[in-house]
Amino acid sequence: MQDYIAFKKIWQDETEDLFELQMIASSRLICACSSAYAGQATIDELMSGLDRFINGKTNEFLWESGSRGGAAGLGPLFQSLRFFHKNKLGHILIEVYMELSDGGNPSEHNCCFYVETELGLLEAFYKKLHLLKESDIDIKIILNE
Questions:
Q1: N or C: which end of the chain has fewer CB within 10 A?
Q2: Higher model confidence: residue 104 or residue 120?
């Protein structure tokens, strides 16, 4: 399997400020999928943090959507991405954490793994993130495409 992260907008409310964001992440060892509610501000936080990370203003960036274990299986799941440099050659590791909707308690049924990328591929992904805010449902953007 190829390392990648994909975001897909699968639902949005009438005000277009709240939407359901599906995240699919894959590494050599695992592929996992979960959905969480997000809004314009959630995507703005991801874009702002990635901008700082890509431009060297910070060495690490953590993005979180929701609260860990907060849904207790009844609502949106928690997702997080932690970006940091693997080495000085432009290789990036992303620690993916997502709670899973498999019938268990999300705080106990989750996964955490690394996705590898490069600075240039991360920047291309960053430049597409605004589409999640501006486009209708079914828009999909992919890291490492």
A1: N
A2: 120
Domain ranges of the chain: 4-143
What is the DSSP secondary-structure string of the chain? Answer: ---EEEEEEEEE-TTSSEEEEEEEEE-SS-EEEEEEEEEHHHHHHHHHHHHHHHTTS-SEEEEEES-TT-STTSSPPPEEEEEEESSTTSEEEEEEEEE--SSS-TTTSEEEEEEEEEHHHHHHHHHHTHHHHHS-TT-EEEET-
Q: What is the pLDDT of residues 45-88, one digit of tens each?
A: 999 999 999 999 999 999 998 777 755 545 568 899 999 999 99
